[in-house]
Design a protein that fits this description.
The protein is an alpha+beta fold and about 290 residues long. It is built from seven helices and 15 strands.
């Protein structure tokens, strides 16, 4: 495949830990997918942020339109420039902040609870709405991925859009913070170890983002089970993951079963990795944060 990113963009991603904005979906595609989101929420019984939390994640397993976004050439082509030709989609997750919402994400790293080694995990954060300074965009601590895994504590952040309510309790350089302001259809990229956060949505519009987590097929899961993933480009010669098929029917019986099974596996994995990461946490750090 022809390269999409320039050498300068690749250098900036490697140096800074993120890259934004990048053009992905066309205006017509954004309109189509916004309509599909409305249809999906109506079918499931409400906003993805208000109904069963399992429907925030991995909708690509049961909705063809989410699978289409995850396989979009403009997005996967950029991922190939960074990870090589053999690519898995490990997870997808909607991050929606309702108008005037107090929901936040505190400073955190994605790497802590995913259980993936090496740290070759790249997230494409796709905007289906305007992401302005007022609506709570992603904020990146420039170059923070260079230090690798930091100490992170869960269960201490209220109104967190993240499952664990987690926050970094380790030192990292906050002298350079950049905001990923995006138009509908644009996306950002970030490395799994880059420290990032997002503020409340103070605008009058929904802030809608779809985070797509991509890994090369050579990546391993270090937990106690074989995890599901979807091959979105190339071939999988390593077979480290349980490959899932693309949905053939929206909300079909087989699709819903695969989604439910994957949710249970990811939840089990999440808490296993959380326990492992906090098992040897210095008690004084935990005490400071808890107080």
């Amino acid at each position: 495949m022809n390269a999409i990113l320039t050498p300068e963009q690749i250098f900036n991603y490697r140096a800074n830990g993120y890259l934004a904005p990048l053009n992905g979906l066309s205006p017509d595609e954004v309109k189509e997918y916004r309509n599909e989101l409305t249809r999906t929420e109506k079918h499931l019984g409400g906003s993805l942020m208000e109904i069963d939390k399992k429907y925030r994640g991995n909708l690509h397993l049961m909705c063809q339109w989410v699978d289409k976004i995850a396989r979009h050439p403009a997005i996967v082509g950029v991922i190939e420039d960074l990870l090589g030709p053999n690519i898995l989609l490990y997870t997808s997750r909607f991050f929606i902040k309702e108008p005037k919402s107090e929901t936040i994400a505190a400073w955190h790293q994605d790497s802590t609870y995913f259980g993936l080694q090496p740290f070759d995990h790249v997230t494409a954060w796709v905007a289906l709405s305007d992401v302005t300074a007022e609506s709570g965009p992603l904020e990146f601590a420039v170059g923070s991925h260079i230090r690798g895994q930091l100490i992170q504590k869960s269960g201490v952040v209220k109104n967190s859009v993240n499952t664990g309510g987690q926050i970094i309790v380790d030192w990292f350089d906050q002298s350079r913070i950049d905001h990923a302001l995006l138009r509908p259809g644009q996306f950002s990229l970030h490395h799994t170890c880059v420290v990032h956060q997002s503020a409340p949505n103070q605008s009058n519009e929904r802030r809608i983002g779809l985070a797509l987590s991509y890994i090369p097929t050579r990546t391993r899961y270090i937990g106690s089970r074989k995890m599901p993933a979807c091959l979105v480009r190339g071939q999988d010669l390593h077979q480290h993951f349980d490959l899932q098929p693309a949905p053939q029917e929206d909300f079909g019986k087989a699709e819903m079963l695969r989604h439910d099974t994957s949710f249970k596996l990811y939840l089990e994995s999440f808490y296993e990795q959380l326990d492992a990461s906090e098992k040897n946490m210095p008690p004084d750090i935990a005490a400071i944060i808890m107080n």
